Amino acid sequence: AFDEAGKEELYPFHFEEGLEPWEAKKLYYFGIPETFIKRSGATLHGVPREKITTVIDVSDYLERKIQAFSCHRTQVKDATRILNRPGYREFARKEYFVLASARGGPYTFPEDDLLSGL
Prior knowledge:
- The longest helix has 9 residues, at about 60-70.
- By secondary structure, the protein is of the alpha+beta class.
- It has helices at about 10-15, 35-40, 60-70, 75-85, 90; strands spanning about 25-30, 55, 95-100.
- The two termini are about 20 Å apart.
- Strands 1-3-2 form a 3-stranded antiparallel β-sheet, with no helix packed on it.
- The protein has a domain at about 25-100.
- It is built from 5 helices and 3 strands, in the order αβαβαααβ.
- The model has no long low-confidence stretch (mean pLDDT about 85).
């Protein structure tokens, strides 16, 4: 969808409804650093540190983040297990992202804001 967005020929009905094409400038994927995965003993695939382009400090929102995570009824079992992992609170103070695709730029890395350079 990222690569196709904004192409008039693919979405003629948008123009018929008066909508303008829009192309996002950046596409990010959320990632968990390999180092945290290894330390925690989780059976997930982590992202190599060198591929992480953006790290956002969310420590001011840590308690809200944990509360929100715990509110997902279908994930309560997982949330409890994850929240009790050694080092989780320290890890959760930051959000990690990989810039998967971008238009425009130039962009400077590492970033500390998903809107950097826009």
